[in-house]
């Protein structure tokens, strides 16, 4: 499970409401799940928001 900023509005821990629209790009492969954060309003990838989860080897 990944938690993400909502695509409708953003919120911070300091109870602020910045402008923008963020979400996740998720790619499901046979050996892993790859996720990247996306700033849809700016049309850019979010630096530092890139994760890979490998499936357990059986």
What is the compact description of this entry?
The protein is mainly β and 58 residues long. Helices cover 0% and strands 45% of the residues.
What does this structure look like?
The chain is mainly beta and 58 residues long. The protein is 0% helix and 45% strand. It is built from no helices and 3 strands. It has strands at residues 22-28, 32-39, 44-54. Strands 1-2-3 form a 3-stranded antiparallel sheet, with no helix packed on it. Strand 2 and strand 3 form a beta hairpin.
Distance between the termini: 21 Å
The biggest beta sheet reads: 3 strands, antiparallel
Low-confidence stretches: none
Instruction: Supply the number of helical segments.
Output: 0
* Helical/strand content category: mainly beta
Approximately how much beta-strand content do the residues carry?
A: 35-45%
Question: Roughly how much helix do the residues carry, as a percent range?
Answer: under 10%
- Give the neighbour order of strands across the main sheet: 1-2-3
Query: SSE string, helix = H, strand = E?
Result: EEE
Query: Radius of gyration, Cα only, in angstroms?
Result: 14 Å
Shape: elongated
Number of extended strands: 3
What's the mean pLDDT score? 81
